Amino acid sequence: MDITEELDFRTVFPADNKNPYSRIIVDKIQANRALLDSELFFDNLLVSFAKLTDGVHPHKSAPSVATLKALFNLITTSQHLDSLKKHTLIYYLLLDLPSRRAASDFASRVHLPHNFIDLITALHCLDTLSLSDALQHLTSPAITPPVPEKILKTLYKHGSASMVATFMSCVQPELEPPESVEIFFTAQMELSPEGAFLYARTGAPGYLKASFLKKLITYCITVNPAVNALKLLNLPFEEDEKHIFVEALKGSGLEVARDTLMVWQMHQGRVDEVHKGTRKASARGEVGGLDWGILGEGLRRGVGGRGDLET
């Protein structure tokens, strides 16, 4: 039975004739909307579910009982919504209230399914930037979150890289916009350069591979290079990836990039290239405990006359 038709505004919202949206609540909603690129997740639902392009939540100029009731009526009379979706949107509005009692009572009254409760609660938590709580609901196996690209961006921008990784691991959404793919790659890079490398190679679209590898190389030699540059050296590059690696380091201009390249060349057995590099670096003397002049002389003696073949 469609019990939405039996719902009256005053049987759902407080019956004391006061506006349930205080100025503090309204200001907070508006501030969060600005942080979320001028669109709440609820705004998206009003458009995509109910086709309510004129539904404003809450009314920007004069939030009142009348404007809340107008939105309530738009939802309950929408021809684009079945009962379940109407109840879901009303449940979201009730979550805005200081006490969750009204929302809980309403969900029980209309028998709102638990997966819809999880979904709308997750979106409400995202809109209020309660991201840890949002993640708990988003990772429920019974829901399929809408607009995963916006969720991903919100978790990264206002949360953390680990939140992004958790969301992607549990929900496994398909990411299409390059911006979303790059956000996930960046989060991976911050958590594990090795994981980001594998994603660039096998997970990301092929046309992004080269740019992602360059970004990873730059990250490793600029962010905690004492640790990350070593991780970079141990990556199992294929031939095309080696070319990207070498060109990125040569074009960097940073001393750590030149040092990283020479160590990598030593690992690769490219002695002549290392010898050339040490001669260029020897003028810097000792850097980070390593004297390139002494290293170059050792290489020259160790390989005999090979180091004199190129100048």
What report would you give on this structure?
- Residues 1-5 and 281-311 have low confidence and may be disordered.
- α17 runs antiparallel to α18.
- By secondary structure, the chain is mainly alpha-helical.
- It contains 18 helices and two strands.
- A two-stranded antiparallel ribbon has the order 1-2.
- The chain starts with 8 loop residues before the first helix and ends in a 9-residue tail after the last helix.
- 64% of the residues lie in helices and 1% in strands.
Secondary structure tally: strands:
2
Any idea what the shape is?
elongated
User: If helices are DSSP runs of H or I spanning 4 or more residues, what is the number of helices?
Assistant: 18
* Main sheet strand line-up: 1-2
Helix/strand/pairing category: mainly alpha
Helix percent reads: 55-70%
What is the mean pLDDT? 83
Order of helices and strands: HHHHHHHHHHHHHHHHHEEH
**Rg on CA atoms, Å:** 29 Å
pLDDT < 50 runs, ≥5 residues: 1-5, 281-311
Please state roughly what percent of the residues sit in beta strands, choosing from under 5%, 5-15%, 15-25%, 25-35%, 35-45% or over 45%: under 5%
Please outline the major beta sheet. 2 strands, antiparallel
- The end-to-end distance, rounded to whole angstroms, is 87 Å
What would a concise description of this structure say?
By secondary structure, the protein is mostly helical. It has helices at 9-12, 23-35, 41-48, 65-76, 83-95, 101-109, 114-127, 131-138, 148-158, 161-171, 178-191, 193-203, 209-222, 225-233, 239-250, 255-267, 271-281, 292-302; strands spanning 286-287, 290-291.
